[in-house]
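Exercise 7 asks you to align residues with tokens for two separate proteins.
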Amino acid sequence: GMKSLSRSLLYRCNTKHNPGLGPRLATLLVLALSHTAIAEWIGDARPMMGTEVSVYLWSDDPEAGREALEEVFNEASRIDHLMSTYKDASEISKINREAAERPIVISSELFGLIQRSLDISVLTRGAFDITYDSVGQHYDFRAQQRPDTATVEAERQLINYRLVRLEQASGTIFFEREGVRINLGGIAKGYVVERGIDLLRQRGIENAIVTAGGDSRLLGDRRGRPWMVGVRDPRADHEVAISVPLADEAISTSGDYERYFEEDGIRYHHIIKPSTGAPAEGVHSATVFGPDAVITDALSTSVFVMGVDRGLSLIGTLPDYESIVIDASGRMFYSDGLTQPGAQNVESSER
């Protein structure tokens, strides 16, 4: 993490070493310091949720800043323990084990996020679908394992968000078919960064950025300047394809380079197209920005699955959201709200 020397300055102004300084003057010195040198950017990045979570914030009081930092990481860990399909004790694992047998009561937090997921499925006509996990569970990207054709054919019959029934009155979830599995991988990281920023806001922090994998949420600006957020080049590690100036907004990128392996020249990645059960083709990365990280997370997945034309048409119907898509030949496409007059090398999608 980034540590600063400014705290040690405080102790050097101790009147014991300076008997000539009156106590009032010492207080003034400390106050003056706390408003200038003591205020600082505080940040850390930690491996979590199968990716990296990072928090970067400005605090006038570094001690309080570090507490705020820990609170965000604790919240990310709490959400991961609730929603990770890799943890047998998580609530989502319990749902996947039991919800096909009978309606089971779930936490209002998970109920709300699943409800939002189903709403986005309706909005995207099934391009976003949390039931992709019946196929998704058979992929192991580290071991380079993928389901065979027969498995995909059998399991993709179970990819259908309409098989998930939520009952508001009883707070229950029920799967209408045996074998249905849900996975909030396309929305949980957006939820983590949105929750993290909420906690910082409640503590009075005004400038921060919280990132989990491809999802970031910005609080305020970078103290007078916008944050420059880079969309990475999907085929060149550590290179930026385009930078976007943002403040007080969320930005999410879904890419075919996050979790994948290659076999016989074909890239098998983690973004499953619900209608086929196979990895979505035609796009290298889809970036969406707007006011809510939960929505940008789900929409970046959706646009990736829908492809340039359908994806950008969808974004065009959502006034608060914009998108940048890089297709399989490396061309960049912008949603209508971004096409600046006279912009060079910008292809607008044909539609």
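Second protein for Exercise 7:
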Amino acid sequence: MKKILITAGPTYERIDPVRFIGNYSTGKMGFALAEVCAEAGYDVTLVAGPVQIQLAEEWRDKIHRIDVESAGQMYEQVMKYYPEMDGAILCAAVADFTPIVVADQKIKREGDNMIIELKPTQDIAASVGKIKRDDQFLVGFALETNNELTNAERKLQSKNLDMIVLNSLRDNGAGFGVDTNKVTLIHADGTKNNLPLLSKQEVADAIIDAIIERL
């Protein structure tokens, strides 16, 4: 049985005990991928950021789910488990920046402005791409708002991905918080497959089919 690692959902970067920097990812796409992979016979490890959704009951005992909060925690789990996997799909919307200082008490409102200094988080896709073996595959996601194709292709190459799934917030019915998605599958050899607007379950099916066929 092949082993696959999937990341899903957002990450939360704490500012103080009650505030964080986050994004609108719900985890629906990543959870759909995990369930489709399990149904296809993969041994699935799912690293999930803070989400409100649950796996379908039939898969809860069959998918190894690891819950994390921050980008740093997700990085640790991915780097821990990827070496023993046949491949990974990095679907999570991981924060690019995190506060340098996290207050241990709730920050009180004082004055008109507050400046929060941020530092880059560890780049999970790039880190995994550096340790990827020839017998492993790596699939990433790119959510873009401009220069979509150029940015996705640059990410595909720079992070040593075998395939990248591009979607745009400018496409109606795509992105965060909806049950549908419209994506383009871009392979390392330059091949592209533009999918129509589909349910996230159908998008997951198409991604897994592409992995089985090409990777």
